[in-house]
Amino acid sequence: MEDLGLKEVFATINSQALLDALLVVVVAMVIIVVAQKLLPVLAGRLSGKPRLYLLASVPLIRLLVIVATIIIVVPILIEPSFENMVAIFGALGLVLGFAFKDYVNSLIAGIVTLYEMPYRPGDWIQVDGHYGEVRSIGARAAEIVTPDDSVVVVPHNMLWNALLANGNDGTDNLMCVACFHLEPNHDVQRVLDLLRNVAFTSPYTRTWQPVVVVVKNEPWGMLYRLKAYPLEPKEQFRYVSDLTARGADVLAEAGVGFVSAPVTGG
């Protein structure tokens, strides 16, 4: 009975319908490819929120094009009756469920990703020990570029059982931390003031965001953590290097000694 139903569904398909459907699919593929190639290039010439918004629009445009293509192609190939839709999508669901279980799982996770947006293109995330900027979000996986310029492909279904840290969460605010391991017996307030001044005088600092210095007493000495925001998330490594180098120079001039290797054991 099911085979006869499917035969009736596809009985109306002819060469003209196939050509029309193929033309729609080709146009959709061209739009997707152009969006995936052109928008990141344009985003690379921008900074701040416009860059993030433009990058985030790429997977959304792809999803809208795919949905629109399905809506246009299905009525071309078959008569859009309730019985035909049930037969087609029922058979398609069975095939995908058995043959592409893991792939479908990733596709569903990709849809959840586009809805919940735990990460977007332009976000700096850490997942499964890998840290980098989200370069693109596909239907099955996302690509992140690490600080060493390696591309890591992260399947969306890792969302089900992995912890994910997002440094800027769709904004252009990304906190950076520079650590200083100092010997004890020094003027703590003076060191706090010196490190704050280092951050505020850095050419990379977003001065309208908070600059915080946290100090903690450790068995080996004092741990200072200078927290501030760079002008652009992509400048974070250069920014931390600048804070660390200039902070070390200022503290050395002030006569504050460093601990070369903090003691971790008893």
Fold blueprint:
Blueprint: H1 2-10, H2 15-44, H3 49-77, H4 82-99, H5 101-116, E1 124-127, E2 130-137, E3 141-145, E4 151-155, E5 164-166, E6 176-182, H6 188-200, E7 212-218, E8 221-228, H7 236-253
Antiparallel strand pairs: 1-2, 1-5, 2-3, 3-4, 6-8, 7-8
Helix pairs in contact: 2-3, 6-7
Domain Mechanosensitive ion channel MscS: 102-166
Keywords: Cell inner membrane, Cell membrane, Ion channel, Ion transport, Membrane, Transmembrane, Transmembrane helix, Transport
Subunit structure: Homoheptamer.
Task: Write up what this structure looks like.
The strands form two sheets. This protein has a five-stranded antiparallel sheet with strand order 4-3-2-1-5. The protein has a three-stranded antiparallel sheet with strand order 6-8-7. The termini are far apart. The protein has helices spanning 2-10, 15-44, 49-77, 82-99, 101-116, 188-200, 236-253; strands at residues 124-127, 130-137, 141-145, 151-155, 164-166, 176-182, 212-218, 221-228. The mean pLDDT is 79. By secondary structure, the chain is α+β, with helices and mostly antiparallel strands. It folds into three domains: 2-99, no CATH class; 124-166, SH3 type barrels; 176-253, Alpha-Beta Plaits, CATH 3.30.70. It is elongated. Helix content is 50%, strand content 18%.
